[in-house]
Amino acid sequence: MSALHDVGRDWWEWALRSSPTRATYLGDHRYDDRLPEIDAAARDVDARAVRDLLTRLKAARPQNEGDRVSWDILRLQMEWFLEALSHRFYEWEVDQMMGPQLWFLELLNYHPLGSEEGQRSLLARWRAWPRHIDQYLANLREGVKSGRVAPRIAVERVIGQADGVVKDPPFEAALRKVRNAALREDMEEALVGAVLPAYAKLADFLRSYPARDKVGVSAIPGGREAYEYCVRTHTTTNMTAKELHGIGHVELASIRREMRAIAKGDERAFLARQMKDPGNFHAKREDLPKSFRRILAAIRKKLPRFFGRLPQQKCVVKPIEEYREKDAPAAYYYPPPEDRSRPGIFYANCYKPETRPRFNEIALTVHEAVPGHHLQIAIAQETDLPVWRRHTHFTAFIEGWALYTERLADEMGLYKTDLDRFGMLTYQAWRACRLVVDTGLHALGWTREKAVKFFRDNIALGAPETANEVDRYIIWPGQALAYKVGQREIESLRRAAKRRLGARFRLDAFHDMVLRNGALPLSTLRQVARAWARKPRRRIGT
To answer: Residue 342, Cβ neighbours under 10 Å: how many?
Structure first.
């Protein structure tokens, strides 16, 4: 085995060891009794480990093109990890989307509870929870000293979530699986004596926390540099906030022209009429997952014409749990674990169904399930790539692909009516708005109110969902930029390949090429696509 492969293996082992909950999620159960260590000592240990790995990587020599791709990815990930530490995000990360108050509960969705061994390892995690919260709060206290504090809207949302857990603990389903009476008693004691007091401690701390009113990350010391880092890592480009802001306006104007063609006039007035029509919404929350399942079944029948390779792993639809649906996005995707012991999950938000337009549902299903996230991620997991490559995450590639497929769905004939197509365009406009709003918030000094108004003026989201979206961009600087940037790159590569190959171009083969290497930085994807198009074949395949 080459030195490069050794580095990749050790990088992956370090990643699982330092993030034991992710290891559990992926089906590696060696660390099921642990929670992440996030104090200063742990950061020092991690920094030394990654510096050593980076030194070894730079001494390794790629043997072939596949190795070159792996080398580039490893270098980027290691350098980004070390740079992230210098920006000290941990000092102000209060996150209503993926913060500890939520991922600790989500453990119940994937921690193995079918055996007493698994139940005892969960008990160990429950007992470790107060220590993790103490480390988390210590990091926030350091942020208070350095002037790096979280935005008030995030703090208020997390207080509500933590208070909700204390008031109505969502652990009963897990406890019902415990048959050993003594073990169950220990777990109930841990809940009462460790877990719930830690949640109360978190909420109490945040109630007196000096949150900031300015929502952009540029408001904190070093914030502009931190945002530049976020832009670079989420887009895998060197584009500036100013460039991206301008692209967002250009994209939005183009999409709105398409919307006007369907509306046969003022697209805003047309949209306003659709949003007032009760027939465009579900009356009951249970109707949403049923509708998504029907759409998903219809999409699957269309896939073989557009893809040579399809994943073996299934995708299922589940409602987002009620304890977190209020602060959650419209939907999101959970990949299968490495051992494929559970399917991919398309989580649908059923909160206030009367605010969620039905004409967006096809585009949302395409994005989160197939041929979007599930198809792309499940195919990557079923390749013979090294395990760390199968689970590598580059936001611009993953989200860019999913957004690309929303347009592809029109070519697939999935939008049966003009209103369905209009719904897809509102989602395209939504992602164009993200370029404007994210850069507006974090680089141009926009207020939350200005961002919310910009969304309401341009896209078909209900009021709760609009607020959730803006608040998501506030806590995840730069992430929202990845969608349009990645989509534009994939579309550009497709046009270039079609020009070069002419009659030899096959769309299914192009898609297989894009997906076969797992997630890539966009610059690497460009190199792979150009090499594929130059292959001297009579008929281009995978």
So the answer is: 17
